[in-house]
Design goal:
This protein has an eight-stranded mixed β-sheet, sandwiched between helices. It has a three-stranded antiparallel β-sheet with strand order 1-7-6, with no helix packed on it. Strands 4-5 form a two-stranded antiparallel ribbon. Helix content is 27%, strand content 15%. It is α/β, with parallel strands linked by helices. α1 crosses α8, α6 runs parallel beside α8 and α7 runs antiparallel to α8. The radius of gyration is 21 Å and the shape is globular. It has twelve helices and 15 strands. The chain starts with a strand and ends with a strand. The chain has one domain: Alkaline Phosphatase, subunit A (3-Layer(aba) Sandwich), CATH 3.40.720.10.
Amino acid sequence: MFNYIRFASATTTLPTLSLAISLFGAGLVATPAAGQTAQNVIYLSIDGLRPDAIDAIIAEGTGSNFARLQRDAIWTHEARTDTEAVFTLPNHTSMLTGRPTFDQVAPLGGVVIPGHSYVNNADPEDFPTVTLPGVGTVVSVANIHDNRPGEAYVPSVYDVLKQGGKTTALFVAKDKLDTVFNNSYDTFNGASGDGSPVPFEGQNLIDFSSLDSSTNDAGAGNIVDTFVQHVQTNGPQDFTFMHIRNPDSTGHEFGWVDNVVDQNLTPEYKAAVSQVDGYLGVLLNEIENGGVFNPDTTTLIITADHGGGATFDDNHGNPAAEAGEEDFTIPFYVFGAGVVPGDLYAANTLTRAFVDGVNTRYPVTGDPALLQPIRNADGGNLALELLGLDPIPTSFINADQNLAIPEPTTAALLALGGLSLLARRRRIA
């Protein structure tokens, strides 16, 4: 196992971060290269977001932008988290690496599906410190690679993007995401970027990174406004992973629900989800109206790391054995370039299915006859496919890049030849 030191004096982040959008000059619309569907992809994780909260605010008249997504995106409210870790850092690591949290070991032994093994969900201030002669006390920050004995490097979406010549960004609202991901794919720990599998001799794979500390309180700050302002000033990146924390922070403080028996969402939690709806309005207006974003060249992927309130009114199941349906059931939306609006499971009847109230295990440790559900981590390889790039090396989730959204050119084929597929039940009783 490798251990690395991140010197506090050398740790810098940009005050704002550019998100992946298409703006290449006044009045100009970028055209994706051959093999690409989108010029820019935004992969947005809304921390702690329950699908039923989206339905609730739409019904109450405070969810107009989620309603727009349900009209104009392809989506589901039956996506799933990782099966064994239903909390923040492991699921976000799965989103970026395409791996489950833990190795999936065959019954007779042997790792069939490698995990990323990052199970630490602590904030940076909880990481251990060490004292170095002549330097002083510094924080020892474990990175993703440290957790893989016998495997020196865990590739991510950022490796493929950088090797494909794309520009990248990370825009997050929790210290631990900023610290771990930057420490994993910085100049010291990032892969070479030239396609060779040599770790620890590379470049910073994340071109722009920002922690918006104003959102560390549940109701403070609009990082989407900050994000858009930066892009309007500095131009876009090809890919950005973005994170909003408000529903999670509110759920932990006030509860996702009043009590776990009745499952009534708290007013504070619904207000936080309504606040996120307003953030989405800023993004959607730009995309639809051709301002900073452009619907012909930009795709927005939206999901969540977990829900909450299934077994604890103010928490989510941890370990996963304590997680209930409201913890592991999450939304998944895709909006923009390459999208035909509709039901995401209906477009993927041959490759994806969900079981009501169940987080289907991965095929090695579960029933191999069951199709996998759509997971939050499908988005990493989907983003790469949209940008015309190959999947993440050693990934498992959507490694075949077969999550159909579908592209407009395939819609007619689905209409002509897919009626029997659409008739197939996408839900397993």
